[in-house]
Design goal:
Elements lengths: L21 E5 L1 E3 L3 E6 L4 E9 L4 E8 L8 E4 L3 E9 L2 E6 L5 H8 L16 H4 L7 E4 L11 H9 L3 E9 L22 E6 L4
Parallel strand pairs: 1-10, 2-9
Antiparallel strand pairs: 3-4, 3-6, 4-5, 5-8, 6-7, 7-8, 10-11
Amino acid sequence: MTGHIEDRRFSQSAGVARRGDLLVFNNTRVIPARLFGEKDTGGRIELLIERILQNRRVLAQCRASKPPKPGQGLLLEGAVRARVIGRKGEFYEIEFEGAEPLLHVLERIGHIPLPPYIARPDADADWERYQTVFAQAPGAVAAPTAGLHFDTAMLAQLELMGVERAFITLHVGAGTFQPLRVDNIAQLACTANGWRSISIRQRV
């Protein structure tokens, strides 16, 4: 190690790679996790799904004028019905009615959860623009933003150079948008608020 520091653009990153190096990418795919609808009392509600559970249930953040109560029914866009099961910390457990697969429901009525610093509604183009070029496994509610800088041309260049690739699946939670609430980052933990399930994929 020489301690030498250089200031480069990301497009020049391939210049620091060498044959035999291994780059590890997160192949999670952002799901349309933002849903809009009404409570059975008529009040508007917005859900931001944090995690898909079993038995057609999800953990979600809820935005409403009054917090929903356990047992309360929800009528979401597309005539999709759901019910509040209860609260778990800052999240609500929501159960969806019907037999349609939950991911299909989200694809049909959901909105891409753009970061709060993008102050506009989501657009059709965001379904692909807010994904990495290697996104495969659906489950994230936010993009692994460091991976957004890679494009197919750079990946092809790295492959020609003999740089190896491996993939993990790390579904990013909505906690990635939250500010740090500790003075010492060593106190941080991987929880439902942030990082979630990890699985290792084969090298390619």
